Amino acid sequence: MGKPSWVRSVITQLSLCLAVLLAFNLGRPWEKPMSHSSSGSSSSRPLDLYFISVRGGFRPLNQQNHLLKQMAKAAKTYKARFVINISELGEDDPLTQNGTWRFSSLKVPWYSTRVSRGRGTGYFLKQIKIPFGKNLDIIGLDTGAFKDFMLMNPLNGAGNDQLHWLTKTLETSDSDWRIVVGFCSLAVCEGNRERIEIQLYEHLHHIFYKFGVDVYLSGEGCSDYACKGSIAYIRNPGSKDEKLPLASVNGVSGFSKGMVNGFLLHRVSSLEIETYFVNSAGEVVHDMVLQQRGKAAM
């Protein structure tokens, strides 16, 4: 004897609801384990610190709202402590202005970089405590003051002041992690659309290496990620990025995914930093793990 029609109807409705729920959750990193770290465990870790970095600038309003909505979901799920907006405009950036309003209920502060066209007044230091008595330094640079320096010209007064401040800050820091943030890339990119060679500005790279910088986050660059020595150079995706060619840094390989209008979610523990590259659909398209004073694991 067959099942009554109302039973079949209920089963059908439940099946449809389950299918919709699965489709909604598919590919959303904050609603499922994101990846396996180098230590073999996965998903959110309540004792680790999470933060978000994003490239600022002007976007169509619908793109901006969609991006902020995805970021807010990730911030709420992973209890992100702060957001870094890698921007040319500092506090005047439209993403910062709208983001601080949207994130106000989450009580998540925003920190923004600036490119001040030679004045060099937009640098900052934020010292963040992480579990187990460890500390994280977020060092924001005003890369506009380094433009001449990057072109192998003498630094102006503002650039010299900032370089002295950066060196002193790193020299006196006893933090376990040091992340430097600036809008401009610290590299010159040469080559063709199939392959590029990235030449780092060696003086700044030498300072980073000497004083134990772990990561440089930028808003510009020709590669999403590259690593030289123990330093990871990571670019935040913009709103109009094109597909980027395979990249290498002075012979050291990186990768280029050409993400568009996404953001980065970072997990910081006492032993490693894991970075998730999240696209505008809320999907993790790549992740990398940087072990403390060690090598990046892809």
From TrEMBL:
The keyword Signal belongs to this UniProt entry's keyword annotation: yes
Signal peptide residues on this chain, from the entry's feature table: 1-27
SUPFAM superfamilies (UniProt xref): Metallo-dependent phosphatases
Alphabetical keyword list: Signal
Transmembrane segments: none
Keyword Signal appears in the UniProt entry: yes
Entry protein name: Calcineurin-like metallo-phosphoesterase superfamily protein
Classification lineage: Eukaryota, Viridiplantae, Streptophyta, Embryophyta, Tracheophyta
